[in-house]
Fold this sequence. Notes:
Elements: E1 2-7, E2 11-16, H1 22-40, E3 44-47, E4 49-52, E5 57-61, H2 68-77, E6 81-84, E7 87-92, E8 97-99, E9 105-109, H3 110-113, E10 122-127, E11 130-136, E12 146-157, E13 163-166, H4 169-178, H5 184-188, H6 192-205, E14 207-214, H7 220-233
Parallel strand pairs: 5-12, 12-14
Antiparallel strand pairs: 1-2, 3-7, 4-5, 4-6, 7-8, 8-12, 9-11, 10-11, 13-14
Helix pairs in contact: 4-6
Amino acid sequence: MARYHVSSGKRIDIDPETGATMESVKLFLLGSCMGVLLHQRSILPMHGSVITDGHTGILLTGHSGAGKSTTAHHFLAKGYRLITDDVAATRFTDTEAIVAPAYGHQKLWEDVLQSSNIEYKRVNREVDGRTKYTVNREQQFLNSSVPLRLIVELIPAEVEHLKNETVTGIEKIRTLMSHMYRNVYFKELKQEATQFQMATELARRVRVIRIYRPHGMATQEVIIALITKEIQQGENVYVTH
């Protein structure tokens, strides 16, 4: 689609291929290139959707197909606000992890959109016969940084019922490292020590829970209720381990 050059955390040069669409060029620009730029700035990019109730930032993470954006979509329908859809630029204060806002768009699968009243036009990409669209979320977007309090790892699994657990200790650090955006960049940039340090710092400041959801089952309302309960239980709690 294009060649990109990201330099010094300040500049991205783009050389599009002939016939490349703007949407396809933007797919890598706003994803991988922004990930490289954040790495170069020593800002931690986490992978996932960040939503907020106005006070608490919640990162919904997981591997491709886990349901991150879909779960965020259901939270937005209940009055939550969107901070970022895919790349969560995270920095640290002495006691908090702060996520910066991205922009008011979200990428959702067509089957999710068909069950809602959201207008969708721009095709983002097609994967395995499914179409993902870019959706305008300006009305639900909060253009303000928020403290990240909770990280939820979503895992589709061979289970009969929804299961959840709190992630602690070294497993918490491993989980955070696995969901850093384009985590292979740490190795390419020779920043493996920095990756571990950032994961440790983030682990000190947030709670992490893991939710196993059954394949092919409509469990969104149960997931939302579970996460909402975790938010309420964790208000004003500073994690030290």
